[in-house]
Design goal:
The complex is a heterotrimer of chains A (716), B (249) and C (410). Helices cover 29% and strands 19% of the residues of chain A. With 716 residues, chain A is of the alpha/beta class. Chain A has five domains: 5-37, no CATH class; 50-103, ADC-like domains (N-terminal domain of TfIIb, Single Sheet); 112-183 and 384-460 and 469-498, 3-Layer(aba) Sandwich (Rossmann fold), CATH 3.40.50; 196-374, Dimethylsulfoxide Reductase, domain 2 (3-Layer(aba) Sandwich); 590-715, Barwin-like endoglucanases (Beta Barrel). Helices cover 20% and strands 16% of the residues of chain B. Chain B has seven helices and ten strands. Chain B has helices spanning 25-33, 83-87, 114-118, 160-172, 186-190, 207-211, 237-245, and strands at 11-16, 53-58, 68-73, 93-95, 102-104, 124-126, 153-155, 196-200, 217-218, 230-233. By secondary structure, chain C is an all-alpha fold. Chain C has one domain (3-409): Up-down Bundle (Formate dehydrogenase/DMSO reductase fold). Chain C has helices at residues 15-42, 57-68, 70-81, 88-112, 121-124, 131-155, 164-200, 218-246, 253-288, 293-296, 305-323, 325-329, 331-358, 374-397, 403-409, and strands spanning 212-213, 216-217. Chain C has a two-stranded antiparallel ribbon with strand order 1-2. Classes of the chains: A alpha/beta (716), B alpha+beta (249), C mainly alpha (410). At the A-B interface, strand 3, helix 6, helix 8 and helix 20 of A face helix 1 and strand 2 of B.
């Protein structure tokens, strides 16, 4: 048979036609569409038994109770536990995704060391032994030489059992310092304690029983303290019957949610506080006994009488009537006056803090219910705690070797502040953190600690709480093999310098000690996370029972302190006449350029410490600024010829920063609010590590504050 | 699978704008619930995927007479002439008559984005990138919601997986209808200021059906006639004026 | 070297010169194909479209080239249905232009969608209420028609005519040409309209939404009319362009004037209807949903000037020029007016696609801006290059202008 071209064509045509009647083309079509639906880049979902565990959010000092939904024991979702007697457990945006932090691309894979301190230095992976072999001699050298500076620990979460560990470690080293974060939410309470004539226990804010809160810049409705507690008490003030008055330069979220907002000229808060005092004095609104208990009453009175509302109104931008009304309000009902700032903005100037804190003393604190109260000390393992020194109050160039616990925790501070506290040659910085951060760039050694939910965490009393509390989070995830927890690291370091180790050697054992201490003190109540009735500590027959209650997610709350007679206080503390004279000077100089002030979200200022999913609010929407965005008033922007969303270069004496400017009428004209925001899914390590954003160009003042920096803005 | 739950419902929401302080918890909870991938490095507010977006709305006043509220904007679950449903060329969008929920079938979606241009609420999002999770994080995904592939449109479906779970539970317990307490969308559950009321508008006794009768309750773009089922409330006059006047520019 | 392929009686430039013309376009096409590869393989993040500007340059391009490509169906309609023999002089060229426009548009659409492998879902799970379904069906069908119409032009090539079977096939095809033209007209009519309906049905976009006449919004009919008006003008402009580039006379001047006259009359009708439509929209449709129509023209840089430019300068003016016999007789005026007509339709499509999406709907929306990425532009340019290449090949080897030979011989 002869095969012609025509036969071939016929065969081909017939085959095509015939194939249509077979499943082949249809199956291919179907498979291709199924493939587009499940292509390999889509991860398979976890399968396995679904369980629920109670824990606490380890991302900030609030330690909110959380319910973890787990598949195969791995948490896949967190939710708050509402109506809890202890911590009004609703999680914030950051806490809701806390279970992702362990997977963050910026996590450290092992110990690292910088090869040198010059600009060309690089971070190199090292073994833990090699790291200790290099660090040990440095530590010994600093310990043995007076000129090499002091050994210090910067503990960003003081009050933990682990904090006591650090203090114990330091107590063996003469001249050492125990340093805490410069901008703590309860910083003002520390100031108040310092004003006390006699040693005075911890203090708290009695928000539950107060009527009026006057907040000088504290972001009470934006993540402050235990966020949900503040929300319940002050967001819907018509329901709670409370009044929140916010004094702030720009209209922050707290100012928006407050009953009233007093837009104040930046830097004149102290003058305003004195003017409130002026009204209280002139109208005799203060309790008479303070004339006895305040040791420098005449000096204060003389000072205050100079701050009549009328001249102060011109200075602060707050009308005289508002000043008088506000003063009457805080004097007329149980009230709290609180000083604070945005978590990126750092501490207030010492004089401002003292003068605002003083208003509480003027109103009769700390003996007044609904005001500032004394709380009991937490039952403790070791006595002899070291004094806490906030970083900005540490003498310049005094630290030779610094161990930093945690990269960032809640608040942030400029690296330049840290550098200023180190000895002239930079000294040695050891950073214990699970991930890379802007802080890593200033460290010589990086110790990869376990990530939240891999580690044993404890949640001591949140800042400002009226009663002490304590809870524990047991690990939900297995730690990485390369992780080194702080307890083990301190032990190894002690060995390296030959002081030997003492006591328990695991983080769990450290927490167990605290649990035992609480149990043997026999005070307070442990509340189960499911909202059941609390169980008095005295009802636990032994330490194991108490420990089990904590492992089950229980939270211990102390009994309220017995009402103390108000001790004697100095209301002006160590403030000199010169300091008082300059305290009330406005920050914005006439005709000055733009004033830069940083802004951030608590516990979310470092990319690596939050879930990558936080990109939804920091990057994929206009809800919160990320690193590189800055808010400016439209009027100021138009004067500068700048449009919404345009790029600009911000120049200060410390350097320049490229930002994207967003117009916001809520920002005071002349201010530039630049975000110390994270880049939550930052996949490029070095980029995030070297870039501390706006804090890099903030000027740290003599007193260690960095609230305001003069800058110029140019179009990019 | 739907047997026993045939009672017609019209699920809706009321969001109290005066309570919302723009914390973003709802956005995060939503992304966790629905396995939305974290942003690609270059993603912006205009290319990101947020089923629920909280948008600031300013009164336009000059400092200090300024005021801003935050408007959480999920899919508005339009009921009448649902703009996105009619335009989809391949029936990837539908309105479930039993629940009133506008559903999106990503497996059917061609990615033409016609529905996105049709939606006046900008509540639809396109996957411009392949969804990618950091290494290891896939084990922390919600087992109940399938991740979507690149090149399709996705949007809020009132946490349909939770409705499904509630129905399964009802069926297991031999109940005809779900227990309302079992079906609470993620954003409603986590809102720290309790700004969102969720429920069945068809059930006249529900808290939602009662609450939407308040004179300060409104819907955005009401005049477009889409009969959306997400209501808003504010006692601030400027918010009511702005929402009703539709003055855009 | 390729003389044997060049139609008898026509003069074409040397192969070398031809290649010198083609190679740059091939490079441009290659560059565009690279951009297309990036979009298909890596994702549409390569474009500057976003969730708010979900349609961009490509959809604008699709709407525009399809409007201009209407020249193919309308010339066929004139020739085969209305029996206007003047149209025969440009019918082949118009078919090639139509084919280029339509195939280019479909190719770009395939890049534009996120899941091109699911394109067939529209046929498998069609939503008959969607304008896009109508567009997809008609576009596919009409592209097939155009391909069939193109086949006899190709088969007339003198080398291919040597194969007897092809000759028979070509003859058979010619017999069904009027049927194809009729089908093509019907399909074209529908998808031009559906493309208009695409935006006219968007009740969520009050700037684009229009009252319905029957089941279609008014933009359905406006698009049909404007495409019919612009089609002949585009054929006219392209013929003039090819004459200019090839430095040859290809058609008799009456043909161009004929196209101009048709275009002008249709444009006049279109402008009239458009004016009525705009007035109804301004005074009724838009205020009904709470938007004052002029609000849209206060937004961003879109002032009322854009409306005046579209309707008067690029609408009424060329229409009057084209319907006037004296003016039409001047080649430059004729060409200019035809060009203006094309620009007017292009502006209309810009307003419908880009301005609609730029304008806010919610009270807290801002006016958006959009600038295509290089990948989008490269894809756009690739379609242009593809068109130039296909047209150049067709012009060199096929008989696009039957009058060319006569003109040359006379």
């Amino acid at each position: 048979m002869k095969l012609t071209r025509r036969d071939v064509l016929r065969f081909a045509g017939g085959s095509v036609l015939g194939a249509l009647f077979t499943p082949i083309p249809w199956k291919l079509l179907d498979d291709s569409s199924i493939w587009t639906q499940n292509w390999s880049l889509i991860p398979p979902l976890p399968r396995g038994p679904i369980t629920t565990k109670f824990t606490h959010c380890p991302l900030c000092s609030a330690g909110c109770t959380a319910k973890a939904r787990c598949v195969n024991g791995v948490p896949v979702g967190l939710s708050g536990v509402p109506n809890l007697a202890t911590r009004n457990g609703m999680l914030c945006a950051v806490g809701l995704a806390a279970h992702h932090v362990a997977y963050h691309p910026l996590r450290l894979s092992g110990p690292q060391a910088f090869t040198g301190k010059d600009d060309g230095s690089v971070l190199m992976p090292v073994t833990l032994d090699a790291l200790l072999a290099s660090l040990g001699p440095k530590l010994r050298a600093v310990m043995s030489s007076a000129s090499a500076g002091a050994v210090a620990v910067l503990d960003q979460r003081p009050g933990r059992a682990m904090s006591r560990r650090y203090q114990k470690f330091l107590s063996g080293i003469p001249g050492s310092m125990y340093v805490v974060s410069p901008s703590r939410e309860d910083g003002m309470l520390g100031t108040l304690r310092a004003l006390s004539g006699s040693p005075c226990g911890p203090m708290g804010f009695d928000f539950e029983n107060t009527k009026t809160v006057l907040s000088v810049g504290a972001p009470l409705l934006d993540g402050w303290g235990v966020p949900e507690r503040m929300q319940v008490l002050f967001a819907d003030t018509s329901a709670s019957g409370k009044t929140l008055m916010q004094i702030e330069s720009s209209q922050s979220r707290t100012a928006r949610g407050a009953t009233t907002w007093l837009p104040v000229v930046p830097g004149t808060e102290a003058a305003l506080a004195l003017s409130f005092a002026n009204v209280i004095f002139r109208e005799g609104l203060y309790p008479k006994e303070i004339e006895r208990t305040i040791t420098d009453f005449p000096r204060y009175r003389e000072l205050v009488l100079r701050y009549h509302p009328h001249p102060i109104s011109a200075l602060t931008g707050v009308s005289p009537d508002t000043i008088v009304d506000t003063a009457r309000k805080i004097a007329g009902s149980p009230s709290i006056v609180i000083a604070g700032a945005d978590p990126a903005r750092g501490p207030l100037e010492k004089s401002t803090e003292i003068l605002v804190a003083g208003l509480n003393l003027l109103l009769g604190a700390p003996a007044r219910s609904g005001g500032i109260t004394l709380r009991r000390e937490m039952p403790d393992v070791d006595a002899g705690a070291m004094p806490e020194t906030p970083l900005h109050r540490v003498p310049d160039h005094s630290i030779g070797l610094l161990i930093m616990d945690g990269a960032e925790y809640g608040e942030s501070f400029p690296t330049s502040l840290l550098k200023r506290k180190m000895v002239a040659d930079g000294g040695t910085v050891v950073l214990l953190s699970p991930h890379l951060s802007a802080r890593s760039a200033s460290a010589d050694y990086l110790i990869p600690t376990p990530s939240p939910f891999e580690s044993w965490e404890e949640h001591p009393t949140p800042p400002g709480a009226a009663a002490a509390s304590f809870s524990v989070s047991a690990p939900l995830l297995a730690p990485r093999e390369t992780s080194v927890d702080a307890v083990r690291f301190l032990g190894l370091l002690s060995e390296a310098i030959g002081t030997g180790t003492e006591g328990s050697t695991s983080p769990e054992a450290v927490l167990r000690q605290r649990s035992d201490a609480i149990q043997s003190a026999g005070r307070g109540t442990v509340y189960a996370p499911d909202g059941a009735e609390g169980k008095p500590v005295s009802a636990f027959s032994n330490g194991d029972e108490a420990w089990q209650a904590f492992l089950d997610g229980g939270c211990w709350v102390d009994e309220p302190a017995a009402p103390a007679r108000s001790g004697r206080f100095s209301i002006l503390g160590t403030l000199t006449d010169d300091e008082l004279a300059t305290a009330a000077r406005p920050r914005q100089r006439e005709g000055a350029a733009i004033t830069l002030t940083p802004t951030g979200v608590r516990a979310a200022m470092s990319s690596g410490s939050i879930s990558p999913i936080l990109s939804k609010i920091f990057q994929e929407s206009d809800l919160r600024g990320n690193s590189g965005t800055a808010l400016i008033n439209p009027t100021t922007a138009s004067q500068l010829g700048i449009q919404d969303g345009s790029a600009a270069v911000v120049r200060s004496r410390k350097g320049t920063l490229q930002v994207r400017l967003m117009l916001d009428p809520a920002v005071r004209p002349g201010l530039l609010q630049a975000a110390v925001g994270p880049w939550p899914n930052g996949t490029s390590g070095t980029e995030t590590m070297d870039n501390e954003g706006v804090l890099a160009i903030c000027e740290v003042q003599e007193d260690g504050t960095w609230r305001f920096t003069d800058v110029t803005i140019e179009k990019a | 699978m739907d047997q026993g739950t045939q009672k017609k419902s019209r699920y809706g929401m009321l969001i109290d704008l005066d309570r919302c302080n723009g914390c973003g918890a709802c956005m995060v909870a939503c992304a966790v619930e629905h396995n939305v991938a974290p942003a690609e490095h270059k993603a912006t507010a205009r290319t990101g995927v947020t089923w629920l977006r909280v948008a600031p709305m300013s009164n336009g006043g000059e400092f200090p007479a300024t005021d801003t509220i935050y408007v959480p904007m999920p899919c508005q679950q339009c009921e009448k002439d649902t703009p996105c449903v009619a335009v989809c060329p391949q029936n990837a969008v539908d309105v479930d008559p039993a629940t009133g929920i506008v559903g999106q079938v990503p497996q059917r979606c061609l990615g033409c984005r016609y529905c996105m241009t049709a939606c006046p609420y900008h509540a639809r999002y396109f996957d411009w990138w392949d969804p990618q999770w950091p290494k290891g994080m896939e084990q922390a995904l919600n087992p109940d919601v399938a991740p979507r592939m690149r090149g399709v449109v996705e949007k809020c479906n009132f946490c349909h997986a939770r409705l499904h779970t509630a129905r399964t539970k009802a069926a297991a317990e031999g109940r005809e209808s779900i227990n309302p307490a079992d079906y609470v969308p993620a954003c409603v559950e986590v809102c720290p200021s309790k700004a969102i009321v969720f429920g069945d508008l068809e059930d006249a006794t529900s808290e939602l059906a009662q609450a939407v009768k308040h004179p300060h309750v409104f819907r955005f773009l009401e005049k477009l006639g889409t009969e959306s089922k997400v209501y808003y409330r504010s006692d601030k006059q400027w918010v009511l004026d702005k929402a009703k006047s539709l003055q855009t520019v | 070297m390729d003389k044997q392929f060049i139609p008898r009686g026509l003069r074409r430039t040397t192969f070398g010169k031809f290649m010198a013309w083609m190679i740059p376009w091939i490079l441009v096409l290659g560059f565009g194909l690279y951009a297309i590869y990036l979009c298909l393989a890596e994702g549409l993040f390569h474009t500057n479209m976003d969730n708010r500007f979900a349609f961009g340059l490509w959809i604008y391009l699709d709407l525009t080239v399809i409007a201009l490509g209407a020249g193919a169906f309308f010339t066929g309609f004139l020739l085969y249905i209305l029996r206007r023999e003047e149209a025969r002089a440009v019918i082949n060229s118009a078919v090639v232009l139509g084919l280029i426009c339509y195939s280019g548009a479909v190719a770009v659409l395939m890049v534009d969608v996120g899941q091109p492998l699911r394109a067939w879902f529209t046929f498998w799970h069609p939503n008959t209420h969607s304008m896009l379904t109508e567009v997809t069906f008609c576009l596919t069908a009409y592209l097939t028609v155009l391909l069939i119409e193109y086949v006899p032009i190709v088969l007339k090539n003198r080398k291919l005519r040597q194969i007897p079977r092809f000759l028979v096939f070509e003859f058979q095809l010619h017999k069904i040409m009027p049927v194809l033209a009729g089908v093509g007209t019907f399909l074209s009519f529908f998808h031009q309209g559906s493309l208009g309906g695409l935006y006219g049905v968007l009740q969520g976009r009050p700037f684009a939404f229009r009252e319905a006449l029957g089941i279609w919004p008014s933009t359905f009919f406006l698009f049909v009319l404007s495409a019919a008006a612009a089609g002949p003008s585009f054929v006219l402009v392209m013929t003039a362009l090819v004459q200019g580039i090839s430095k040859k006379k290809l058609v008799k001047p009456e043909v161009l004037q004929f196209l101009g006259r048709i275009s002008g009359s249709l444009l006049l009708v279109y402008i009239l209807v458009k004016a009525i439509d705009t007035l109804v929209w301004m005074n009724y449709t838009s205020p009904m949903v709470g938007f004052s129509a002029f609000e849209f023209y206060n937004a961003g840089s879109f002032g009322t000037w854009i409306l005046v430019l579209e309707v008067v300068v690029l609408g009424l003016v060329p229409a009057l020029l084209l319907v006037n016999g004296h003016m039409r007789a001047r080649p430059l005026v004729l060409l200019g007016a035809a060009l203006m007509t094309c620009c007017g339709v292009m502006l209309n499509r810009f307003v419908m696609t880009i301005q609609t999406l730029a304008l806010p709907t919610l009270p807290f929306d801002a006016v958006l801006s959009y600038m295509p990425s290089w990948e989008e532009v490269a894809t756009f340019v690739a379609v242009l290059a593809y068109g130039v290449l296909l047209y150049s090949l067709s012009f060199r080897y096929l008989t696009l202008f039957p009058q060319e030979k006569d003109i040359r011989q006379s």
